[in-house]
Fold this sequence. Notes:
Oligomer: homodimer
Number of domains of chain A: 3
CATH class of the largest domain in chain A: Alpha Beta
Strand content of chain A: 15-25%
Largest interface: A-B, 58 and 58 residues
Strand order of the largest sheet of chain A: 2-1-3-5-7-13
CATH architecture of the largest domain in chain A: 3-Layer(aba) Sandwich
CATH superfamily of the largest domain in chain A: Response regulator
CATH topology of the largest domain in chain A: Rossmann fold
Radius of gyration of chain A: 27 Å
Helix content of chain A: 25-40%
Number of helices of chain A: 12
Distance between the termini of chain A: 80 Å
Amino acid sequence: MGNQVARSKAGIRDVAKHAGVSVTTVSHVLNETPHTRVKEETVDRVRAAAEELGYRPNRLARGLRTHASEMIGLVAEEIAATPHAGRIILGAQKRADADGLALAIINSDLQREPTVPPRSVHAFLDRQVDGIVYATVYHDEVVVPPALQGIPAVLIGARDRDERLPSVLPDERTGAADVVGMLVEYGHRSIAFIDSAEDIPATRGRVRGYRDGMEAVGFSPDARIVAGTPDAAGGYRAAAQLLDQHDPPTALFCFDDRMAMGAYRAAAERGLRIPEDVSVVGFDDQDPLPTSMHPTLTTVALPHYEMGEWAVATLTARIRAGSPGDEPAMSCLLPCPVVVRESVAAPARR
Amino acid sequence: MGNQVARSKAGIRDVAKHAGVSVTTVSHVLNETPHTRVKEETVDRVRAAAEELGYRPNRLARGLRTHASEMIGLVAEEIAATPHAGRIILGAQKRADADGLALAIINSDLQREPTVPPRSVHAFLDRQVDGIVYATVYHDEVVVPPALQGIPAVLIGARDRDERLPSVLPDERTGAADVVGMLVEYGHRSIAFIDSAEDIPATRGRVRGYRDGMEAVGFSPDARIVAGTPDAAGGYRAAAQLLDQHDPPTALFCFDDRMAMGAYRAAAERGLRIPEDVSVVGFDDQDPLPTSMHPTLTTVALPHYEMGEWAVATLTARIRAGSPGDEPAMSCLLPCPVVVRESVAAPARR
DNA sequence: CTGAAAGCGCTTACAG
DNA sequence: CTGAAAGCGCTTACAG
Lengths: 350, 350
């Protein structure tokens, strides 16, 4: 019943026949080929025929002919483990969509060797993707395999050791320094940093930023750094240690939100109110934690969405330019904004 | 330097030439075409040639010929908003990988109309995907557009109103009932449910399951249900109300983990210890919340990964069977396991 | 302004 | 056991 579109899909030849023109002409009008004039009336006839038949060009066939699949591949390391991989994908996908590109995704196991894995890359290459973005769970550097050499590619969360590929990373260092700056503006003079005892090179930016911020205002950071396991228990112990000092800090800046959660408990056990008696800041803005805490946690956000966008935008530019990595690679540090909530206030005492 | 593979990729013709055979033969040996005997020695020669040239078949060309792209599309509604969309994708991806299928992903804005959007579907159809899985943010039902009619498809998180497509959903009702069962076994006789005031049909399974569980042991549930906004503040208020009753419950079963977070605070303010004085259970197992709480939260997990797997497995079966939806649709309810942590214990009093 | 024809890189009856 | 040839659905010089 009704105007059911035929199950067997119409091809360009059907449209041509229906409009009484050649397939060449159909192709020209539907693709609006530059430098090609077609009579107004013919254009209308072709469009009408295409419309009527519900014609959709077969992208596989077009890709085969043009050597461009208009598809890009995103290989994501531990797509599930990375808490916000979803946001990277979303940013990448939105951008790809805007550029008319399809986005294929493949998971890759965490690489012990800091090397992009050939297997997942090949799955894409065989499908003639126009470019690849490789998202790691934040390594420092990665060495890119030869397979990736011949195709536009960009890295998320890691730098190319050989400096051939563009890469985008979060500027955690500046974000952390900004937190210290904010705390200082609030009047804090005694700011501690609860660091992660897991010494991953990639995350050292956070302590570094803390140090930067402290030194910028002439404070000595090192006496106020305590490390713990990067979870609530570790944060609890470190905060307890800090708060039990004879001259406790008025602000606790934590390596991540989970540690901040532990710091809340340490404060509560000591009858310290947040933020009146002690200010607490986290890192990651890992939903749903910061907004579920009481008071809600001031923290710094990771620009996952923006990194995804940047990567695809850069990839698209490279694809269009047709340069598979011959010009100098550029690397981009995206800002980590501090998101202000309730856990920070001016210190009550001096 | 070294054995760099030529930048210009070898095609099947190059392999044929190199091995001194026809492309037909190359195709047969590389694909191991059934019912085709090739001399042992020829096989070796072809394999060697392919290896040496680093031959990788062009999947676009093959797809054009065979009318099978060996790619499936996953359209995810609000990929970022759904907290664990990443796990759905991971499950789907792992399964697709095992089946030799590529997985393309596209985001779709939340649909106000409960209808699968034609636009994202077309992006896939034009690329000749072999099938589509559509993941919603848990609707009750969805009406599938005609575009999806002609191709294998399966739904995640929603049922097809016309009962043509298979679908997979979390069995929240049973999961919730299981929680009550567990609480009863611990000796609880007074179990309250903190419900969400947002009445979304899809999530009603949680209260229903609570009711099921209560009625199964002869308890009356309704006096113990209090609703609030589904966040920490809402959980706090509801828990406060419950705990301030003259005969407070010994266990608080919360609609979600965030509400449980609020319940913790209400308990703490009243000097009630968890789980000694009051047991608390959440729902969602939304990382990193339950493991960051103190004590860690017993909650029920959503089978995101498994739903992704199930969807792709079912889709693959349909594709292989070549039946685009003519046989009766089947719907699957996947178990929501309760994950036991520290927030539950036997009640101290009676 | 429009069309006939070659060709993208494969697979697959069909012959031999 | 092996190969010549047609064809998947498009795009694109090249002619007219």
